[in-house]
Amino acid sequence: FDNHFVEAANGVKIPQLGFGVYKITKKEEFERAIGEAIRIGYRHFDTAKIYGNEAVLGQEIQKSGIPREQFFITSKVWNTDHGYKATQKAFEQTIKRLNVDYLDMYLIHFASPHYIETWKAMEELYVEGKIKVIGVANFEIRHLEHLMKHSEIPPMINQIETHPEFPQNALHAYLNEHQILHEAWAPLGQGNKALFEHPELQRIARSHNKTVAQVILRWHLERGILIIPKSSNPRRIKENSEIFDFKLSGDEMEMISRLNSGKRYAINPTGYIVNP
Ligand code: NAD
After folding, report:
1. Total of domains in the chain
2. Catalytic-labelled residue, pool 22, 42, 51, 126
3. Which residues form the NADP-dependent oxidoreductase domain (predicted)?
């Protein structure tokens, strides 16, 4: 499939559709899912130290025989690795597990204490060329303001929970205003039934001859948001990539935005006892 690319503030081009690998834990299931994703054209993969699958992801990428530069690999600094030295060490371990010599994107997973020192280490790794895009995840406006006030390089992306039931309108506007890309985690609302069975979404899907999942993913694309849907089902992996050949009307976009109910899956933005 023909991915669309969005540009970070430093000009790096990021495939707008990526593949999230959280909770694909069984090795065979993981290999099958990633193998299939690569085969049909996914090149952007989103992992994190805490997902415990950096090493298998690295192996699958190598196994594909496709040059490393054609991939866009993201990982994240976990809560227990905050601080300047600890982050340097965490980064080295992450690239070692992935078996790569640079990361395309490295994010602070949560705004846990000491993220300013963490960011300092990330800025240096960025300047050295070991990370192409640096950013954060689960940051609220107050964290972004604090970070920008106390650092040299502003974050280039914020990966936050975003789906029709939790569209993040205020934070989305703030990110746009500050040239920080918006990336959605749980772009499909974690597949929740109430969302997928919503009659309006089903109606829109039928009228485009698409599925509800495709309509939701398309809604994100048209908002300029990067998405990393997760699936270990080959049919759905393919389905989630077939979203570049149709458009939603202004009315449809608005209708989907009205599904905002405030329902969210993350509990605490600082990252303790939350769904990573
Ligand atoms: P998601 O919205 O991608 O939902 C995934 C679930 O939706 C699947 O398990 C499946 O049940 C269902 N699904 C997928 N494709 C479907 C289809 N075509 N039709 C019907 N159902 C379908 O939620 P997620 O996995 O939580 O988020 C995606 C990725 O975001 C993760 O894998 C991870 O990489 C990242 N993430 C990041 C954070 C963070 O704190 N930064 C938190 C959670 C997830």
Report:
1. 1
2. 51
3. 17-260
